[in-house]
Amino acid sequence: MKSQTTDISRNFIHKMTKEEKIAFLKAFTCLANSDGHFDKEEKEFIGEIAYLYGLDKKARDEIMKENDAEEVIREVSKIKNRRAELELIKEMCMLAHANGVFSDEETLFIGRVGKAMGVEPEKVAQISRWVIDRLIWLEEAKLIFEEK
Q1: pLDDT (tens digit, 9 = 90+) per residue, 106-132?
Q2: What SS3 state is found at 83?
Q3: Which of the ends of the chain has fewer CB neighbours closer than 10 A, N or C?
């Protein structure tokens, strides 16, 4: 997962408030728990992003506990920055694919978060397809360049 988190725009992160960062990561935790399995890869993904966001240990601990999905959806619905909304959907799609299984529960939660923020279902689907294409491209690169 490490290589997938490095493309987050550092300029974008610096424009986010601490509350927005926490809401993002709580959405990730809810997403990771939505299929009933909070996998090691998902925890690492969230931890890496929390580190990139510069959040302290107390905030990271708060984020990693199980959060109520309805409360998290209310928190992310307050985000009104279009770029922030689209980045959240992208990162959630990447997280959903972290363990190699994109469940119906994960799809539904991403859709609910998108709807709460006013992101059109077509845009959510477009972002999801882009993430899948990117993951395929990265796997093909491993084969082409004989990486193990």
Answers
A1: 999 999 999 999 999 999 999 999 999
A2: helix
A3: C
